[in-house]
Design a protein that fits this description.
Mean pLDDT: 93
Bound molecules: S-adenosylmethionine
Number of helices: 8
Helix content: 25-40%
Low-confidence stretches: none
Strand content: 15-25%
Number of strands: 10
Distance between the termini: 41 Å
Shape: globular
C-alpha cells in the first residue's frame, strides 16, 4: 500500500466526491430515522496541505490549487458546492492561514451526523489509521476501525438502523481493485438492498472512460446515476488523471436535481484544458 492521499487532498477529484457526499447525507437526513455512514477507505480524515507540496524526496506540484483552491473566492456557487465550501471553511484551524489544511470524507460526514446517526471509518494503512484514530478519539457516534474496507462491508452491513450510506473510495493501486469494488457492491446490496452506495472511480487517460461501469452492468443495479467530472479533453496530454466519477446506487429521490447543476458548474470552473466538463447521468433510471 503505497498510496498516500496527502498529495491529492483537495484536488478536483476530492471536490467532486465531497460535494456529492455532503449532498447525499443531507438528503438522506430528510427522514428522521437514524443511519449508518460507512467509509470503507477512510484515509486519515484531515490533511496538512503544506505536506502536499513535498514528495518523499523532491518538491512536487500540489493538486489542491486546481481543486478547492479555485472555489474559495467564488461568489456564484451552486447550492451543493456552497454547502461544501462552507464546510471546508468551518474546518479551518484557528490561527493557520486559509487552506493550510483540508478535511477528508470522515470529517465531512462527522460534521453532519445527527444524534440518531453513527459512522464507521475503515482504514488499513497503519500510519493513516493512527492519525484517523487520534482525530476521532472521543468524538461521539464515530468509530474508526483498522480493517480492510471490503471486509468492513461484510462486517457492518446490514446495520440495525436498516439505513446506510456507504462510501467506497479505494486508491485503485492494486491490480484486482476493480473486481474487489464490484464484489463489495454486490455483497453490500445483497445485505442491504435499499442502502445508498457511492463508489469513486478514475476516468482513464485515453478514453476518458470508466473501466468500472461496464463491470457493474451485470449486477442488475437498482436506480443509479453517475456524476462525472473531466478537467481536460481527449487531446490534452495532462493531467495524468483527467477525470473521475462517482457511481451512486439508490440515490435519494430527486437529489439529481441539486447535484446535476453543481457538477456541470464544476466542469466549467475546474477545467485545466479545453474539453473539461461535468455531467450527471442516470445509468439505471428511477422506475
Ligand atoms: N475517502 C478519503 C477521503 O475522501 O478523504 C480518501 C481515501 S484515499 C483515496 C484511499 C485510502 O484507502 C488510503 O488512505 C489508503 O491507505 C486506504 N486503503 C488502501 N487499501 C485499503 C483497504 N484494503 N482497506 C481500507 N483502506 C485501504
Amino acid at each position: 500500500m503505497n498510496y498516500r492521499h496527502h498529495f491529492h487532498a483537495g484536488n478536483f477529484a476530492d471536490v467532486l466526491k465531497h460535494v456529492v457526499l455532503g449532498a447525499l447525507l443531507r438528503a438522506l437526513q430528510s427522514k428522521p430515522k437514524g443511519l449508518l455512514y460507512l467509509d470503507t477507505h477512510a484515509g486519515r480524515g484531515f490533511y496538512d496541505l503544506t505536506v502536499a507540496a513535498t514528495g518523499d524526496r523532491l518538491a512536487r506540484q500540489p493538486e489542491w490549487p486546481d481543486g478547492i483552491g479555485r472555489l474559495m473566492e467564488r461568489t456564484d456557487l451552486p447550492e451543493a458546492v456552497a454547502y461544501y465550501v462552507a464546510a471546508v471553511r468551518e474546518s479551518a484551524v484557528a490561527g493557520a492561514p486559509a487552506l493550510s489544511f483540508y478535511p477528508g470524507s470522515p470529517w465531512f460526514a462527522q460534521q453532519l451526523l445527527r444524534a440518531q446517526d453513527r459512522a464507521v471509518f475503515a482504514e488499513l494503512q497503519p500510519g493513516e489509521y493512527a492519525e484517523l484514530l487520534r482525530r476521532f478519539d472521543g468524538i461521539a457516534r464515530t468509530r474508526p476501525v483498522f480493517q480492510d474496507g471490503y471486509e468492513a462491508v461484510r462486517a457492518h452491513l446490514p446495520p440495525p438502523e436498516r439505513r446506510a450510506l456507504v462510501l467506497i473510495d479505494p486508491p485503485y493501486e492494486a491490480g484486482n481493485e476493480l473486481a474487489a469494488v464490484v464484489t463489495a457492491l454486490e455483497e453490500g446490496l445483497a445485505r442491504l438492498p435499499g442502502g445508498t452506495f457511492a463508489v469513486w472511480y478514475p476516468l482513464t487517460t485515453r478514453a476518458r472512460a470508466s473501466s468500472l461501469l461496464p463491470r457493474v452492468e451485470r449486477l442488475g443495479l437498482p436506480p443509479t446515476w453517475v456524476a462525472e467530472l473531466t478537467v481536460a479533453g481527449e487531446n490534452s496530454p495532462s493531467p495524468r488523471m483527467p477525470g473521475c466519477g462517482l457511481l451512486v446506487v439508490n440515490p435519494p429521490w430527486h437529489l439529481d436535481r441539486e447535484v446535476a447543476p453543481a457538477v456541470t458548474w464544476l466542469g466549467d470552473v475546474l477545467a485545466q484544458a479545453p474539453g473539461g466538463r461535468g455531467e450527471l447521468r442516470w445509468i439505471v433510471p428511477e422506475r
